[in-house]
Amino acid sequence: MVVQREKCEILTPSVGDISDELQQAIERHGLRIARGALPLLGAVVGNDQNAMQTLVNEKVDGWKKALDLLACEEIPTQLALLVGRWTMTAKPSALVRTLPPTLTTTSLADFGKAVLNTMQQRLNLCLEGEAKQLFQQPLGAGGLGFCPPAETAPYAFLAGLAASSLAIRPSNLMNGEQKGSKVEEGWLIKQLNDCLSRHIKPFNLEWPDKDALTNSGAFFTYFGDTDKRQRCDKVQAKLAGTFRAHQRAELKQTLSPETVSRMESRANKASALIWKAYPLTQDFALTDEEVRFSVAYATGQRLPHMPERCSCARGTPLTMEHTVHCAEKLMRHNMMQDRFVSFARLHGVRTRQNPRLTYQDAKEKLEPDVIFYPGTHAPVQTDVAVINPCAPCRLRASRYGHRWASKTKKAEKTRKYRPNAVAMGHIFRPLIFETHGKMADEITMTLDMLASRTPMSRGLAANDMKLDLAITLARGNALAARTTIARAQRARDASRTVHPASGDNCCSHSRNRSRSNNTRSCSSSSSSSSSSSSSSAVAAAAAE
Ligand SMILES: [Zn+2]
Questions:
Q1: Is 384 helix (H, G, I), strand (E, B) or coil?
Q2: Ligand 1 geometric centre to CA of 299 (Å)
Q3: pLDDT of residue 175
Q4: pLDDT tens digits, residue range 22-78?
Q5: How close is the Cα of 387 to the center of ligand 1, in Å?
Q6: Least crowded by CB within 10 Å, which of 359, 366, 457, 536?
Q7: Under DSSP, is residue 356 helix (H, G, I), strand (E, B) or coil?
C-alpha cells in the first residue's frame, strides 16, 4: 500500500508536548501536524473546542463562495433554487451529525441567512413576514423547503450519536459504566446531556423512543443494543419531523387565515413537484420570470410595482391569489388539455377533443374536453378544470373553503357530464387541478392508464407526466398573472391621465378597455367567467 504523505496529517492534543521520538518520526516521514483539531471527511475532529469552532466556521464560509456562483445571471433561477435548497439542507449533513449544536448553530444560522439573501437576489424578490416564513417551511408542509439548518442541528447530532452508540459503549468514553447505570461525564457526554435537556425535554411532545431520550446512560443502552440495530434508523427524520410538526402547529396560530389556507393547499406531493424539476430539457425548464412568479404566488409575496386594484369589477383588490384566476384561464385550460392529448399520442391512445373557444362555449356544451379510447376498456371521457382553492371569495365564504374546493368542483363536473357518459357506455373522470398544484386522484388514474399501455422501454413514466403537468400549470399561472397585472397596470395608468390632450390613440384605447372591464364581473372559479372576458383575453393573447 502506498500512503500519500501530502494527504496525511497527525492530530495531536492541544495541550502538552509530544515526545521527541514521535516528533522525529513525524519529521522523518515529512508529515504535517495539526494541534487540537483537524478537518476530516466533511466534519471536524479534535479536542480543542476553539480550534474546532474555527475550522467549522472556515468550512461554512467556504460554502458561501458557491453562493456567489448561484447569484450569477447565467445560471437559470430554477437551477439556482434547486442548488440553493440542496446547499441549505443537505450540505451541512455531515457537520451537524458529527458535531454538537454548540459548535455548529451560529455559523449555520449565518449561512442560512446568506442562502436566503442569494435566493432573494436571484428572484429579484424581497420576501417579507409570512411569505418568508412559508419559504422556509418544508416542501411537504406547503413551503419551499428552505428550512434553516440550525433549527434541526440538535436532532441531527442526537441521531449521529445514536448511530455511533455501538462504537461508543465499549469505548473509554463510557468509563465507569456498570451495566448502563453510570456514565462518566466527558465533553461529548456533556454535550449529549445538554442537547437532551435543551431540545427534547422542554417540548411536551411525543418523541419517538422517548424513554431513551431522557439521559445519556439510557440513550446509549437503548441505541447500543446490538440485537435492535435498526433502532437508530431514521432517528434524525423522526426527531426533526416531530419538531417541525410542533413548530408548524404553533406557526398556524400566528399566521393570517389566508396564509394558512395557502400553506394547507400546497401541503401535498403534487404542489412540491415544480420545485423538484431539473431543467434538463425544454419540457421541464421554467423561465426566470415564471420561477419568480411561482415563488411569489406560492408564498403570497406581492410582486413589487403591482397595482393595488384589478381592472375588473369596480376595483377588486389585486391580490396574488386574484392574479391567477382573473384572466387567461381558457389559455391555461387548453395548455393542460394539450398535454394530456400529447401524452395519449405518445402512448398510442386515440383521443377525440372538443376544443373550447370561449368559456361560454364550455358552459353550455355537454360534451367533455377529451375522450380517450384506450382499447383495453371502455372509452374515458374527461373534463379538465383548474380552480383556485384560495380564491378570496371562496375564503370569504368560509375560512376553510380551500379544503373542499376540489371536491365541490368534482361533484359539479360529475353531475354535468356523467349521465351522458354512462348512457354511451363510457367512463367519466373529472381532471381537477388546483392553481396551487394539487392534482385530483382521477389525474393519476388517467396517467397510469396511459403509462400502462406501453412497455417499459417506450412512452413516459406516470411521474414524468405528472411533473410535466405541474410545470405546464406553473406556466399557465404565470401567463394568467402576467395578463391580469398588465391589464390592471394599463387601467391604473389610464386613470392617472388627467389632461385629455396628453393621450393619443393608445390612451383612448386603454380608456375604452378599462370601461369595458368595469362591466364584467370577476369570478373565482375557472369555468364561470363571462364570455366577453375570455374572448377579449383570447384576442389579446392572439395579438401578442
Ligand atoms: Zn380581476
A1: strand
A2: 20
A3: 57
A4: 888 888 888 888 888 888 888 888 888 899 999 999 999 999 988 999 998 899 999
A5: 15
A6: 457
A7: coil
CA of 336 to the centre of ligand 1 (A): 22
Q: What distance in angstroms lies between residue 141's CA and the mean position of ligand 1's atoms?
A: 29
Q: How far is the CA of 522 from the centre of ligand 1 (A)?
A: 5
> How far, in Å, from the CA of 513 to the mean position of ligand 1?
13
On whether the CB atoms of residues 82 and 143 are closer than 8 A, the answer is no
Closest by CA to 146, choosing from 219, 70, 50, is: 70
Quote the CA–CA distance of 160 and 236 in Å, as a whole number. Answer: 8
First to last CA, the chain: 69
Q: Where are the domains of the chain?
A: 36-138, 153-242, 267-496
Name which of 101, 91, 117 is nearest 151 in CA terms.
101
pLDDT tens profile 102-119: 999 999 999 999 999 999
CA of 542 to the centre of ligand 1 (A): 20
Give the Å distance between the CA of 493 and the centre of ligand 1: 16
Distance 394 CA to ligand 1 centre (A): 15
Tell me, in angstroms, the distance from the centre of ligand 1 to residue 309's CA: 8
Q: In angstroms, rounded to a whole number, what is the distance separating the alpha carbons of residues 416 and 418?
A: 6
Q: What is the DSSP string of 66-134?
A: HHHHHTSTTS-HHHHHHHHHHHHHTTTHHHHHHS-HHHHHHHHHHHHHHHHHHHHHHHT----HHHHHH
Residues in the chain: 544
Tell me what the pLDDT averaged over the chain comes to: 84
